[in-house]
Amino acid sequence: MVTLRIILLLFLILCAVAVSFSRRLLVSVSIYMAFSLALALIWLILESPDLAITEAAVGAGISSLYFIMLKKIRSIQTAADRQNDRRRGTPTGGGD
Amino acid sequence: MEKHRPKTEYSRRERFTRWCVGEYDPSAERLETRAPADEAARLELQRLQEYAANADRGIHHELYELGLRRRVGLFTRFYRVAAVLFALFLAGVLLLTVSYLPRFGDVSAPENNEVARRYIEKGLEETGAVNIVAGMILDYRAFDTFGESCVLFVAACCVLFLLRVDGQEDPRSQALEDMSDRFFEPRHDAILQMSARLLVPVITVFGIYVVLNGHLSPGGGFSGGAIIGSGLILYLTAFGFARTGRFMTEKLVKILTVSALSFYCAAKSYSFYTGANHLSSFITPGTPGAILSAGLIVYLNICVGIVVACTIYSFYVMFRKGGF
Amino acid sequence: MGASILTNYEEIGAVLLFVIGLVNLLLQPNLVKKIIGLDIMDSAVYLFLAAKGYIAGRAAPIYTGGVTDASLYINPIPAGLVLTGIVVSVSVSALMMALTICLYRQYHTLNLDEIMMLLRRQEAEQLQHLAAEERPGDLP
């Protein structure tokens, strides 16, 4: 059990560091979702199932908010965006 | 000061005459910014104007930019070093503190005091909730949870202020939002619609189960509400606003949220009106383990669930289109 | 140094996460990553609280078989505090995301340094504009 705890904590720290070093915002948000999932497992190990279920549910809700925000700030590029970029020669996305 | 005074006087008079003739409107573009109510703001504005007027504009601009850039560069370097040093210092202090804390999982730690013991020993008898955490946050500390639901409501209101697009006042941006929404979101995606058709009822029923069983098992209003909200978001993503707009209108969300909050407020106010001792009220704890036990906790859980679900759904809707 | 640094893994992890989130918040120019950094700081505080409530060898705070013996269940108070905190942190990050969208609509960038530069330039231009308006006699 101690090994699992340490592995999960190291995974959390790895995720937290990777968020700031990833170049695209979509990758950062996905890593943060993995962070949230690992945190839900830690709540389960710490004998707090209330927290685990809340963290999992809230993680699902907030991930959709993050994704829709990335769409609004045009960090998730669609095919039309890429075509536009190629024509203008500059990226439009807010990704870093 | 002396030099400028007659000029401005003159220009004011001239402007006044022009205004009388009708070719100059002083309120045209800057009435709101140019009505300094207090003396300090007026003096500050005057000082700024004089400063700007006295400097030679082109050269001043260049110098300003250059100096600004140098200063910003210096400041950035200093700021980075200071931030890293501060973070290291904070980490050192906190780790030192952690090393003197009681050991992990220690029974004799000071936070395991008589409060927790009392919650566990008397909780079943006083609140009737099998889940001690639910009994604690919705009975002993119900006002805390009420304030927290209000925080959610206020956050939803603030997002509404920031992102709302009113179609009647501003049809152009409404059309723009609609267009970008149509452009970004999938329409009639068969895979998405089929999986949503299968998943959304299951998710919603599971959310309702979690809310209603909040006093018996892990879960409760917060997690159940978030699950229901996520189900609604999935439904909206698959079928678009035309389908969800039939039942989740702005009016419904408003009515649900406000009535849930008022019911919560009224229920807990009643309990505090009777001397904060709701044991004598007509709602009894009932048999522990039954679905309709634990007094008010079931109803409060439903209220919290409604508030959370509506908040998460309205966050999503506001982010996506700026309106329901 | 005290002795319990060898056993308090959760607390050490919480401290490190808090500091990583803080550095993210201070040094990252991108606004979205700043928001994620704040979320990480939130999670670190919750992790610390929940770790303090854990008691080794005891069960989750849900009565099993109607036994109300306090020596069987872990401390429920940190769980209650964290439960409300998680949902509040969601609303906080949603509010900040809304502000970010507003900023992006205004300046078309997410980089805070660029936004500050644009703001300063706007200020300088406004000053010039004011100066030009205040001296009608000087104009040719």
Number of domains of chain B: 2
What is the arithmetic mean of pLDDT of chain A? 80
Distance between the termini of chain A: 39 Å
Shape label of chain B: extended
Structural class of chain B: mainly alpha
**Radius of gyration computed on alpha carbons of chain A:** 17 Å
Labels describing this entry:
A: mainly alpha; flat; C: 140 residues; mainly alpha; Helix Hairpins; 0% strand
What does this structure look like?
Chain A has 96 residues and is an all-alpha fold. Chain A has helices at residues 2-21, 25-45, 49-72, 79-88. Chain A has one domain. By secondary structure, chain B is mainly alpha-helical. Chain B folds into two domains: 51-91; 130-321, no CATH class. Chain C is mainly α and 140 residues long. Chain C has four helices and no strands. Helices cover 69% and strands 0% of the residues of chain C. The model of chain C has no long low-confidence stretch (mean pLDDT 84). Chains in contact: A-B, A-C, B-C.
Short description:
Helix content of chain A is 78%, strand content 0%. Chain A has 96 residues and is mainly alpha-helical.
